[in-house]
């Protein structure tokens, strides 16, 4: 099916492009579905499950458990305020540095 695009106006050309993109996506989804069926059939023929091969964490990253980091610095004015040395510096840390303290003075 050859379409002479030189005879199409702007709206007709945009419509043709939209239809072509829709059809392209449909073909892609069909191909992915067939491939998925082949992969599942192969896995099943070998006696395994999808989770055996690819793990149970589908469709996402495996996240590590968050652990707390021991503090490295303590506010001399308020000992309850600490900082691990990671991330943005707390305001009290910057204020202490401006007041003439050194990092080693604030270290625990």
From TrEMBL:
Keywords: Coiled coil, Cytoplasm, DNA-binding. It comes from the Bacteria. Residues 10-37 form a coiled coil. One of its GO terms (cellular component) is protein-DNA complex. PANTHER family: DNA-BINDING PROTEIN STPA, PTHR38097. Belongs to the histone-like protein H-NS family. This is Histidine biosynthesis protein.
């Amino acid at each position: 099916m050859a379409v002479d695009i030189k005879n199409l106006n702007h709206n007709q050309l945009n419509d043709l492009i939209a239809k072509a993109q829709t059809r392209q996506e449909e073909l892609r989804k069909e191909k992915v579905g067939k491939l998925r069926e082949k992969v599942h059939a192969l896995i099943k023929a070998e006696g395994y499950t999808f989770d055996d091969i690819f793990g149970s964490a589908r469709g996402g990253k495996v996240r590590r458990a968050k652990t707390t980091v021991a503090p490295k610095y303590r506010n001399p004015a308020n000992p309850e305020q600490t900082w691990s040395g990671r991330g943005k510096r707390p305001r009290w840390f910057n204020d202490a540095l401006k007041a003439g303290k050194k990092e080693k003075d604030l270290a625990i």
